[in-house]
Amino acid sequence: MVEFTEKEERVSLELTEEILQSMEPGAVFRDYNCRVSSIDFHKTSTYMVTASDDDSIRLYDVANASCLKTINSKKYGVDLVCFTSHPTTVIYSSRNGWDDSLRLLSLHDNKYLRYFKGHHDRVVSLSLCSTGECFISGSLDRTVLLWDQRVEKCQGLLRVQGRPAAAYDDQGLVFAIAFGGYIRMFDARMYEKGPFEIFSLGGDLSEANVVKFSNDGRLMLLTTMDGHIHVLDSFRGTLLSTFNVKPVAEESTLDATFSPEGMFVVSGSGDGSTHAWGVRSGKQVHSWMGHGSEPPVIKWAPGSPMFVTGSSELAFVIPDLSKLPAYAIRK
């Protein structure tokens, strides 16, 4: 079921600490009965996609908080999912223990368009280049593979020592690979020459979980299994802040996301709760109780004062304007 509240009103807001502190779930989907493992937003439409441990992929229209379609992947399982440039085409990773291929799937007619075979263990990182057909995947087989959506065979292979986290920047010019206490920066056009920069995480050697860039490319974050969220200057590699939450289990992933303008970071925690942090202040701004003990998946909606969390339920977290005196007076 979906629960709607008065907080669904869409208002153009400049995100501040006060607005962030007012945010609460405005629509909640409680029909999963399992863990949501991945969330992605399409950059130019109102669509959102989720993957979950019941082997389903669900397509939502964020504009009216409705589920448009559910597609089951019982044979292969599903773990990570990302939109391509097309609003009803996704790439997703398997989670069935015997086939670690990636798949290009049309949600429109539920047809596989291409299979990408190359990994020999679970894929734990998946990032698509926003400006072209390329994408990158990292696996527990200690490889990072570079792909072209139009070709089944991988276009490049990089070996790593540990669980990798990989991501493109928003312009698709650079990608980062994190493992073993360092983030390695690659030129996407000349990756075979090796990293052009290597940034240290100040001694945090625990396994990398996710690495992400802010929308403007100036900042990047890395989460680790020990419960650390590091925020760095992506040009200089300067460590700006480290936020600390409860550690996560080996099979779990500590997720985090930048707000659209990069002023705040919202992260999960090993105890299932969600936390918001100010990038400049380095201080915690707010926290929300979780549902269960699994760290939630978190994704901020593009250009919107809303983020979505996924655990045993899916929640659209939006400002409650009745808590904000400046907006309450207008009513």
Automatic annotation (TrEMBL):
Major location category of this protein: nucleus
The UniProt record lists the keyword Nucleus: yes
GO terms of biological process kind: DNA-templated transcription termination
Source domain of life: Eukaryota
Subcellular localization(s) per the UniProt record: Nucleus
A GO cellular-component term linked to this record: nucleus
Swiss-Prot/TrEMBL keywords: Nucleus, Repeat, Transcription, Transcription regulation, Transcription termination, WD repeat
WD repeats: 29-70, 116-148, 258-287
A matching Pfam family: WD40
PANTHER family: WD REPEAT-CONTAINING PROTEIN 82, WD40 REPEAT PROTEIN SWD2
Family classification: Belongs to the WD repeat SWD2 family.
Protein name: Protein ANTHESIS POMOTING FACTOR 1
Organism listed in the record: Cardamine amara subsp. amara
